[in-house]
Design brief:
- The chain is α/β, with parallel strands linked by helices.
- The protein folds into two domains: 18-151, Rossmann fold (3-Layer(aba) Sandwich); 163-424, no CATH class.
- It has 14 helices and 19 strands.
- The protein has helices at residues 35-48, 64-74, 93-103, 118-128, 139-151, 160-175, 213-220, 222-226, 235-247, 256-279, 284-288, 298-301, 305-316, 411-424, and strands spanning 18-20, 26-31, 51-56, 78-82, 111-115, 133-136, 157-159, 179-184, 189-194, 200-205, 292-297, 322-328, 331-340, 346-353, 356-363, 367-370, 374-381, 387-391, 396-399.
- The longest helix has 24 residues, at 256-279.
């Protein structure tokens, strides 16, 4: 509403700022021959939170008409072109011409975002005409433009992934330690690595435990989700439950079985986000070795803190002595310290904490909570692990299952193992 005050200029009341995921943006990647160009284009898409549907390179063996048809079927909102700098756009010009043929009649027509120097941008803009083209000299500029598409031109949107990145940087600065923020909700999964110096990396994938549940199954297969369930279930019954989750994304799990399914979907969504990070050339090992892990979104709102802890440990597979915290009503609470060890036979853990000191002998494959509190200084004999972490209400989780965490293939062996792990942290009702 505009309020008139006479000769003065009209005053527009400030609109309420909203936090959310914005508009879903479908993206297609065009990249040079070298892995570096493909990784860079994928990194920009994942960092901006757009849905990278498919990618094409100059070595694609399909005919021109087949490429045009494949681009049209993808129905992109934006096409990210990352040419080889040495070739000034010549390597991607045929692909851009196929884009014009396949998508020129779509309404709305996709935009072409070109990363590179001015000569590459001019060459590709000519091949794409009359499609709208924009060029960006740096990756941050490109990511910013992609995020603006997600805002849909509405300045009141504050993107949730941007807020996650800001929070991760603040925690990393306060803790003076590498921090991994893991966010999972119904449609989006984010993994944000922040370092004390302000650097880091971000992955935002269109996977989730509600509206994005079917996308998780489509990417990993039903058996990958089923392997995390501590009860036997056949594939058709599991698929029905997954698609019900996608149809009713805001439904709250009302039974242990529904909660276990949501935890299984969260594990696979996080795992795929970390795989995407590796495919984009990001340092996946640095994410797993972060000294602080922050649980946000659905991971922070599970009924029991142990449920988010178990999902994070299974999916992230931390490799360092780590503090796990979770977001709670605008603040953060410490959940537990995680000590991952992988001894040949046994390892001896020596630790000092607020109540004194202690020592425990850990066998290979062990998984349990040690009742300690406060700040813990840890050293080990028989395993390469040491450092300092904070234990919360759950104490210190000792994880000697190895990396990567492997599950037996046969139900007769897998189900008892899962039951032990859930019971060790009281993650599900008996």
């Amino acid at each position: 509403m505009t309020v008139s005050t006479g000769p003065e200029a009209s005053v527009e009341p400030a609109r309420e700022t909203r936090i959310g995921h914005g508009v879903a943006v479908r993206a297609v990647l065009l990249h040079g021959d070298r892995p570096r160009e493909r990784q860079s284009a994928l990194r920009a898409a994942l960092g901006a939170g757009v849905d990278a549907r498919i990618s094409f390179g100059p070595a694609d063996g399909r005919a021109f008409a087949e490429l045009a048809a494949a681009l049209r079927e993808a129905r992109p909102d934006v096409v990210i072109a990352w040419p080889d700098p040495a070739r000034r756009g010549e390597d991607l010009a045929p692909l851009v011409e196929a884009l014009r043929l396949g998508c020129g009649a779509l309404r709305p027509a996709p935009r072409l975002f070109v990363h590179g120097d001015a000569r590459a941008a001019v060459r590709l803009a000519g091949a794409a005409a009359p499609l709208e083209t924009a060029s960006f000299a740096s990756e941050p500029q490109l990511v910013g433009a992609l995020r603006e598409l997600r805002r849909g031109g509405d300045a009141t949107w504050r993107l949730r992934d941007v807020e996650d990145e800001r929070a991760a940087r603040n925690i990393a600065s306060l803790a003076n330690a590498d921090t991994l923020a893991v966010y999972v909700d119904g449609a989006v999964t984010s993994c944000v690595l922040a370092r004390p110096d302000g650097s880091g990396a971000s992955v935002h994938a269109a996977l989730g435990v509600g509206a994005g549940a079917d996308r998780v199954v489509a990417r990993v297969g039903v058996d990958r989700v089923r392997r995390w369930l501590p009860w036997a279930i056949d594939a058709p019954a599991l698929l029905e439950r997954v698609f019900n989750r996608a149809r009713w994304p805001e439904a709250v799990p009302a039974s242990p079985a529904a909660l276990a399914l949501e935890m299984a979907l969260a594990r696979e969504a996080i795992g795929r986000a970390l795989e995407d990070a590796a495919a984009a050339g990001l340092d996946q090992a640095a994410m797993r070795s972060a000294r602080v892990i922050v649980l946000a979104g659905r991971l922070a709102s599970f009924p029991r803190p142990a449920q988010g802890l178990l999902v994070a440990v299974d999916a992230v597979e931390p490799s360092a002595f780590t503090t796990v915290i979770r977001e709670r009503a605008g603040t953060y609470e410490t959940v537990a310290a995680v000590a991952p060890v992988w001894p040949r036979r046994t390892a001896r853990l020596r630790f000092q904490h607020a109540s004194g000191s202690g020592e425990q002998r850990v066998a290979r494959g062990a998984f349990y909570l040690a009742p300690v509190r406060g700040r813990i200084e840890l050293t080990t004999a028989g395993a390469d692990l040491r450092g300092t972490a904070e234990a919360g209400a759950l104490g210190m989780l000792i994880d000697a299952r190895g990396r990567p965490v492997t599950l037996p293939l046969r139900d007769a062996e897998r189900l008892p193992a899962l039951a032990r792990w859930h019971a060790a942290v009281a993650a599900l009702p008996a």
